[in-house]
Amino acid sequence: MSPPADDIATKESVPFVAAAGAAAPAEALSGAATGWLAGRHLLIAAAIVVAALMPFFFKSFVTFQLTQVMVYALAILGLNILTGFNGQFSLGHSAFYGIGAYTAAILMHDYDVGYVWTLPAAGAVCFAVGFLFGLPALRLQGLYLALATFALAIALPQILKFGPLEHWTGGVQGLFIDKPDPPFGLPIDSDQWLYYFTLIVLLLLFLAVRNLARSRTGRAIMAIRDHPIAAAAMGVNSSLYKTLTFGVSALYTGIAGALGAIVVQFVAPDSFSFLLSVSFLVGLIIGGIGSIPGCLVGGIFVLYVPNIAESISRGLAGAIYGIILLIIIFVMPSGAAGFVRLANAWLAGKWRPNPTARSTLGQPRR
Amino acid sequence: MELLLHQVMAGLATGGIYACMALAVVMIYQAIDHLNFAQGEMAMFSTFIAWQVMQWGQPYWVAFAAAVVLSFIGGVLIERVLFRPIHNAPVLSSLVAFIALFSILNSAAGYLWDYTIKTFPTPFGHKPLLAGLADTHEVGMIGVTLGLLGLLYLFFRGTRLGLAMRAAAANPESARLVGIRVGWMTALGWGMAASIGAVAGMLIAPVVFLEPNMMLGVLLYGFAGAVLGGLTSPGGAVLGGFAVGVIENVAGTFIPYVGRELKLTIALVLIVAVLMVRPSGLFGRSVVSRV
Amino acid sequence: MKQVTRRTILAAAPAVLTLAAIPARAQKKYGPGVTDTEIKVGNTGPYSGPASSYSPVPKSIVAWCKMVNDQGGVNGRKINLLSYDDAYTPPKTVEQIRKLVEQDEVLCTVGTLGTPTNSAIWQYMNQKKVPQLFVATGATKWDDPKGHPWTIGWQPNYQSEGRIYAAYLLQEKPNGKIGVLYQNDDFGKDYLKGLKDGLGEKKSMIAVEASYETTDPTVDSQIVDMKAKGIDVFVNTAIPKFAAQSIRKAAEIEWKPLHILSSIGASVGATLKPAGFENCKGLISDFYLKDPSDPQWKDDAGFKEWSAFFDKYLPDGDKLDAGNVAGASLAAMAVQVLKQCGDELTRENVMKQAANLHDVTVPMLLPGIKANTSPTDFAPLKQVQMARFTGERWELFGPLITGAVT
């Protein structure tokens, strides 16, 4: 790598770089990086092929688990757009997930809408809610914003249980959804179909985020994260982009919620507690803030680690879970994506001590 | 009218619980610049330690002192063992460490002491005051909270150590330059916060009963109170705690139809509304950033 | 010990056992998860997360099966009970249940815990035709042999308990002003609905409906409100923690209504002792299981058997926790069903036998209470008995009552 390119690469205080593509143009400056980039495309293509073949090698229960991993990955991606790209912090994404899930469930249950159409509907509803919620978020920062989003997470289950809305939400008893059959007479079962359906949605949305990150809008959004005041001085309409990011973030998580509802075939207020937000946040951090493939790692973590913890000790499942979390954070302080980046740098003989000593939120640590 | 008075009094009494917790929350925020999500579980664990010491036949004050001292040591150890190594990691990574700590303490307490509720004694007794509007324990709890607040004020304003701690939290680099051992100040902050948490836990347990999940709700309200009052202001946090207690009770009782079922939601919405006007809380300093 | 157990259960249903077992012996017929030496059974429960206080139920189910295995198993086969953590979240329950059904290939599930969690797997189990045996929740909907022939309930449902309180109140205090404290979730709302249905046209007797969330630190505000509004009948359907708080608060503000405590919060050790016995005198409740902390059972044979089981198989457990009684009793009844299946251990026959219980009793059921099911009746336990707290123990009174909710 030539010195200038290297310089840029080190300056990615922005952990998200590697995947989201912000760094890609920078790295493309040097020839070495271009080769790596091609390798990267190959890797992605291989991953997609493997993903497409998986359902034929596993029992339908595993297919179902993998589908859920993708659903969580998508939800985490939604949170990532907000936190990784824009530097805002949310404890309320379980609410967007829940709103998406209920939108899908109510449309399918009460209005017989086809499951495919519930995704855009859930996305639209969540975008609207997220956008509106982005307005107060304009005034609030850091922990104060966390509390505001937290209020949303606490409020949603209560609102879903609320008497006058029971007619639509099914109240505490929840709503059932029928499992969609594979279309066009495909010779696969409905679990496999849902897996592919989710995979397609996931890939499309991953691609969309990648393009968003590389666009003018994406750069504006990230500029706000890195230095709000400077961004404003450069003429970035900070309020517009912040609320917009909130909306898009909610849209992603909402679509994930709708998918989750279809996959699980059931929604109830207790599925969308504040703890789900915590899971998303943990998944986001474990995967690596700002990293798109990291979201998948996060999804895998959210689904599988509690199972692992439980298999070690049932009575102390929670404690084991906590210990696993601690170990991961000790080994990979910037999540899987940061770890991979470090490992890459090390393999390339370019290891430098401690590139993580920067805030993920783009501000110097005090 | 009488009902309003009753509800305000009941709100102040529960608000005392939140205030106590809010104070501990702000305390650690001052020391480490983070909200400690495991604060409630630390307080719960400390309270169980006191309970265990009493089960072993020791009197209340021995158990009280043991819990406070052990919590202080525990807090320092947690900082040294868990948080020191990752203090260079991204901010949100320490959030994961808090969540891990939460999970470990909660699960361990359930494993060690089971989930049935336990009574926890109070030095103030449970005698009704003001025709049953409050009881001696609630008044005692409010008194202790205010007393702690006063002591902290004196400590941070009037002692060198307090000043050093404030400096270490506010500006670690400059503090280091003037010879303050920032790492130890942070550890000390953890220890003090754990001790305050222990006191809070031991004051709260007689009201809500002791069990591993007892602090979950209290912590939510404590956070809300602390944020409402302003995370940079211990006095504001205490006031915020009381305010949350009163708002929640009054809203729950008097807003027809939606009140009871959505009372927490209403309280939170009100708080967010306040934050819209005062983004750093009622008594918090607003952050000035340098370009 | 071994003999006592056998004898108790055998004595419970000798006729059934012989009738059901003999023809089945003739030929062996196995469904998934069954071999000559083993029967694989699944279970889910909240071992972690905020609902982990219910974990004694699955733990004691596991322990009971272990005891049965140590005593020789069921018709010579050991029960291999696989119990997984679902953290009380419906999506996790679906995942764990699918693992049990599709990967572990269990014959049936037993005592899966929680209303939202069981709701989430309700359709799946019925589509897959896997017996969802004795769900550990008191919602009314489990008794639906036509719509969901593979799911069967267990405990008396919350709505019928609510109706029983209504009947009692209409008799004892027809002009009372009722205040209800309920948890804002499925079981709280079921109690409320049962109470309202039972009161019928006198529904307006309910003057205050106060809910709480499990995250609320206290319910003081609700209690103060009820006193101020002149409530003289207090129907308290809270879980032990909040039941104890409200009993203590009521005493503190010198509010003395007719206080009905639901069976959920009526444990002597878990609720009344923390609340203070002096504050509990005169409380009314209903029971179907023996309260392990109630001194009146200390010489009872069933209690002694349970107690010996507990000491041996749950040495770390909390004996005050009523979950240990519910789990053990539920497991004992499931064992009875498996026994009745004889050598025909198919999913169809498990459901058939589960719908074929006649006057079955297990050690910790109240004297006289028996489980009965039929192909049109999937609610094994329907009877309860009212009790009044004397200041140190519950004194049962009146006949066994059957709440009629179908």
Shape of chain A: globular
Main sheet properties of chain C: 4 strands, parallel
Roughly what percent helix of chain C? 40-55%
| Tertiary shape of chain C | globular
* Average pLDDT over all residues of chain A: 79
The CATH class of chain A turns out to be: Mainly Alpha
Order of helices and strands of chain A: HHHHHHHHHEHHHHEHHHH
Structure description:
The complex is a heterotrimer of chains A (366), B (291) and C (406). Chain A has helices at residues 3-11, 17-20, 23-28, 31-53, 60-86, 93-111, 115-139, 142-161, 166-169, 190-214, 216-226, 228-233, 238-264, 274-287, 292-312, 317-331, 335-347; strands spanning 175-176, 266-267. Chain A is mostly helical. Chain A has one domain (61-347): ABC transporter involved in vitamin B12 uptake, BtuC (Orthogonal Bundle), CATH 1.10.3470. Chain A is globular and about 50 Å long. Chain B has helices at 2-32, 39-55, 60-83, 91-113, 136-158, 160-170, 172-177, 182-208, 214-229, 234-254, 263-277, and strands spanning 128-129, 134-135. Chain B has a two-stranded antiparallel ribbon. Chain C is an alpha/beta fold and 406 residues long. Chain C has 2 domains: 2-155 and 295-375, 3-Layer(aba) Sandwich (Rossmann fold), CATH 3.40.50.2300; 158-287 and 386-402, Rossmann fold (3-Layer(aba) Sandwich). Chain C is built from 14 helices and 13 strands. Chain C has helices at 2-12, 14-25, 56-70, 90-103, 115-128, 158-172, 186-199, 220-228, 240-252, 268-275, 277-280, 301-313, 323-341, 347-354; strands spanning 29-30, 38-45, 78-85, 108-110, 132-133, 178-183, 206-212, 233-236, 258-261, 284-287, 344-345, 383-389, 394-402. In chain C, helix 7 (186-199) links the parallel strand 6 and strand 7 (206-212). Chains in contact: A-B, A-C, B-C.
